[in-house]
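Bug #77: duplicate submission created two jobs. Keeping one. Sequence:
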Amino acid sequence: MNQSITAAPADVGVRGLFDAGNANFWRLWAVGLAMFVIRWLETVAVGVFVYQRTGSAFLVATMTMLRLLPMGLLGAFMGAWAERIERRWTLVGILFLLGAASAILSLLAWADRLEVWHLAVGCLLNGLVWAADNPVRRVMIGDAVGAKRMGAAMSLDIGASNGSRMVGPAAAGFLLANAGIESVFAVSAGLYAIALTAAWSVAYRNGVTTATGSILAQIAEGLRLVRTNRRLVGTLLVTVIVNLFAWPFTSMIPVVARDRLGLGPEGVGILTSMDGVGAFLGALLLALFVRPAWYGRTYCWGVLLYMTMLTAFALMPDPALAGAALVLTGMGQAGFATMQATLVYLAAPPEMRSRILGVLSVCVGSGPLGFIAIGMLADAVGAHWATAASGIAGLASMALTWRYWRAI
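Kept job's structure:
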C-alpha cells in the first residue's frame, strides 16, 4: 500500500524536528551523513593518490569534475524521472550499488592493481548519485517534515554535509598515511552498509505518478515555470556562478597544501577539513537562528563571503592563516548550500518539486566547466594563483548579474 510521510504541524524550528513523528527524517538524515562522509573521504584520498601518481593538478580537478558531470548532463532527466519512481526503493538500490563499487576499489588497491582510470569510473558512478540526491532523498526529506520545517531540516542536512567535511578529509589523511588507499574504500563500503540499513527502515511509499507525457515534455514544463519565477531565476543563476567559480577551488586545496604550504598527507587532510569546520558552525548557526524572512539574504551574502575568503585562502603563505580563511569560506558556503535547495523547494509547486530540483541539479552540474578551467590554469600558473583568479572572477560575475539575483 502506498503511503507518504505526513509531518506534524508543530514547532517549525529545529526543536520541532525532534518530535516523535519525525523518525523518518532522522533516518534520511543518517543516510545523507554517511554519504557525505564517504564523499569527502574519497575526494581527498583520490586527489592525493592521483597527484602522487601523475603530478597533474588538472587530473586532480578532473576527478572531482567527473563527480559533477552527470548533474549537468542528466539532472533535469533525473528530476522528471523521480516523479515516476518509488523513491525509497530507488534510494536502497543506489546505496547497494555504491557500496559494491567501493568494495571493488578497495580490493583492487589491496591487490596493488588500482589505476587512475578505475578511480575515474568510481567518481563518475558517484556523480550519478549526486544527480539523484536532490530529486530523490531531499524531496523525501521535504515530504517528511513539511514545507514550514524545510529550512530547519535543510540546515541540519547541510550541517551533516559540513560536519563530514571536518571528519572525512582528516580521516582520509590518517588512513592514507597509515593504511593506504585500500583502507579508505573499505571504510566507505562499511558506511554504505550502515546507510543501506537506515534507508531500508524508512517508512516511505510515495505514490508513483502515471505520467501521460514524455519526460522531455515534463522537463519543458518545469523550465517554463522557472522562466516565469524571478526568485527561481535568481537562485539558479547564483548556483551556476558558485559552481563555475567557487566550488572548483576545493579540488585545489590538496595541491595548494602540498606545493605552497609544504604539508604531508595528514596535514593536507587537516587543512582540507577546516573548510568543513566553518561550514558546520555556519549550518548550526543557521539552524538555530535563521528564520524564513532571512533565507534570501543568507543565500546571497553567504555566496559573497564564500568567494572573498577562498580568494584570501589562495594567497595566504602560512598554514594557520590559510586554515582560518578556509573556516570563513566554509561559513559562507553554509549559507549558500543550506538555502539553495530550500529556496527552490519552497518556490516550486508541490507537484513539480522533483522536476525543479532536477533543474537545480543541472545548474550544479555546470561545475565541470569550472573544474576544467581551474585545473588547466593551475597547471599553467600554479594552484594558488588559479584559485585566487577563480574567486575574483566569481565576485565579478556576482556584481555583473546583481539585477537578476536581487529578487531573491
